[in-house]
Amino acid sequence: MLDKLSAREGFAGHHEDQQTEALLTRLFPSRDIKKVLLVTPPDVEAAFFRYENAKRRRYSNYPPYGLAILAGNLREIDIAVKITNLNHEVLKRCFESNNEVEFDFDAIWKNKLEAAFHEFEPDLIGVTCMFTMTHGSLRNVCNDAGQYGVPVAIGGVHVTNDIERVLADIASADIAFLQEADLAFRQFIQVVNRQLPVTDLAQVIIRDGKELYPLLKESKPTSEQISNIPAFDLLEIPDYSSYGIIGSFYHLKPPETRFSTVLSNRGCRANCTFCSVAYFNGRGVRQRTISSVVDELEILQNEYGIGHIMWLDDDLLKDHKRTVGMFEEMVRRGLRLTWDATNGVIAASCTDEVISAAAASGCIGLHIGMESGNPAILHQIKKPGTVDKFLAAAEAFHKHPQIFASVFLMIGFPGETKAMIFDTINVARQMDMDWYSIGQLQPLPNTPIYDAMVAQGLIPDVGSKQTRFMNGPHGRASEREKNSKLASSDFEDAFAAIPADQVPAAEYLTDIWFYMDYHLNFHRLFREVRPIKMDQQIKKLRKVSDILLPDHAFALYFLGYLQHRTQGNVEPDLVRRLEKQLVSSSYWQERFKAFKLSPDHLKNGDFNSHAPSAA
Ligand code: B12
Ligand code: SF4
Predict the structure, then answer these.
(1) DSSP state, residue 285
(2) What is the pTM (predicted TM-score) of this model?
């Protein structure tokens, strides 16, 4: 990508050292950076923020882990750092507020930024941005920060992936860092402070009026250089999970549990065509030392009271020996915290030995990256997995039922026929895992699949501007109800009209998605008899019906069903909520009719033929 960028019109190539020096002096006249303020913008702009969702603790509230890494590195060269997490501030204030009318989203983060600036008086402000959907919020924060008269630097996954649009749209950003900036940011400050020569500038683009100066030498941290422990003392680690969610498995822990995150590996061994990780981190995996990772866990547990961590890794289980060694070290040191791998693990690494060690070291939940059960599709998308490996992984998980094992599936790949989708459904059924997180393909810019689909004329090249993710609290999935009418009333019927070797038209995919979701996730609960699994599913459905999607009628119905199975009665409030939902929503009425479900089942404990021994 760096090559691509330097070749673009409007981006200068190499620059004379003197010219660069002059530019740095214009930006930093005293050539003396002593203090850096690092800022996390709110995840979205005010227009996309829903007060009631934040009140339900529906939004994510992750520690700004990348900024804490940068801060740790800057402190090593005696730079003072402050981190202001505006996403956290907004969520916290929303949680504490009693009145939506008086809740002023923009005023909250602007006041906080102003206070941080005046209190700390930094020489440079650095703003991070991970997600495309945060673009507008990044722009607002940079524009606000730009008024304080010190240069503004930006960095993060979105900045890297979408650098041209970001720099064109956010004129208040003076400096942009690309890719992992562990070294590049520190080197930049040392160059400004005349401690290093300008030739050490790397992975950075500096703005000078209308000109952009890219200095794109690579400065990628090695395994040794990523083993530093982040500056946790600059964060509000114990507080984040009180105001938002971290990871996908928080429902398995008591609500008062404190959550945090840890990154043990950078990059991924695979190169799936729909994923941008290789584009950001480069090929292959760099691993931290086991001792630095376990030291970090110990600090989080002992100094910050953390009871659960989510691994940020893209390839947590890379290298069998190291993985088992790390999990064993966690046990040897007597760590009490539990953990999850929300981002997903590679199925081929889920051997008996690895999963036993994972379970012993506190694993309570993870996602397995599968995507498809069809060998041709797996080959096409370069997914590192085979059907045999998926089935073997499932067997390993069946031996450790304390782990809630969920599977990532995807439909809608180019050329994916009805028969291929059935392969995915059939393999998923054979695996019999606890949940299936099913997505429709959404090609992201800067991924091979996006480029291929644009080249084949399958999608327009809209770039990231129109990218709106399907999942997540701000995703399009939450609006699914608005435009959907069932095409047929039976799972198999949904496919009946489509020949096996035909690719289903886009309008059928939502129906197919819906039927997969119902059968693979909900209907299978009628067969569940294992007490530990029923307990996990009750917690999962509580999460869906209380936090994620309170009007999800299947979640209400099946929560009631499991209550009936486990305790012999159903909470009356649950039945009331379900009845209310069915009266007010034709979407759910239609689906309840199609699947022969009724709130009466919960009232009289009669589940027709659905549940073999329900009564
Ligand atoms: C953990 C994670 C999540 C977490 C949340 C992370 C969080 N808020 O902290 C969860 C599970 C919520 C998540 C969800 C999603 N994610 Co995600 N996620 C990641 C993941 C695996 C790791 C992020 C991380 O913490 N990295 C480690 C830290 C250390 O890196 P960092 O923050 O980038 O910081 C470094 C540099 O960027 C730089 N830097 C960062 N900021 C700054 C600032 C300055 C001033 C400077 C100088 C440097 C700098 O320096 C740091 C040190 O090197 C990345 C993949 C990846 N490897 O980055 C995907 C990734 C970011 N996610 C991605 C996607 C697509 C999603 C989802 C949309 C998935 C989905 N379909 O639902 C959702 C949407 C989220 C939402 N809010 O709705 C894409 C991003 C695509 C995009 N352009 O937006 C990524 C790249 C993975 C991919 N598949 O390609 N995700
Ligand atoms: S295995 Fe996961 S992280 Fe690795 S390339 Fe594939 S999708 Fe990306």
Answers:
(1) E
(2) 0.94
Assign residue 331 a region: left if phi > 0, alpha if psi is -120 to 50, beta otherwise? alpha
Set out the domains of the chain in order of their start, with CATH numbers: 2-215 (3.40.50.280), 246-441 (3.80.30.20), 484-615 (no CATH)
pLDDT in tens, 166-175: 999 999 999 9
Q: Please say whether the beta carbons of 217 and 233 come within 8 A.
A: no
| 49 close to 90: Cβ distance less than 8 angstroms | yes
Q: What is the pLDDT of residues 575-588, one digit of tens each?
A: 999 999 999 999 99
How many residues would you count in the chain? 615
Rounded Cα gap, residues 543 and 435, in angstroms:
14
d(CA 324, CA 358) in angstroms, rounded, equals 8
Burial of residue 96 (CB within 10 Å: 0-12, 13-18, 19+) is exposed
Cα R_g (the chain), whole angstroms: 25
CB-ligand 2 contact for 272 (6 Å cutoff): yes
* Residue 185 burial (CB count, 10 A): 27
Q: Is 276 in the pocket of ligand 2 (CB under 6 A)?
A: no
Tell me if residue 318 falls in helix, strand or coil.
coil
| Strand-pair partners of 205 | 176, 214
List residues near ligand 1 (CB under 6 A): 43, 60, 62, 65-66, 69-70, 126-128, 130-132, 153-158, 161, 177, 180-182, 185, 263, 275-277, 280-281, 312, 314, 342-343, 444, 469-474
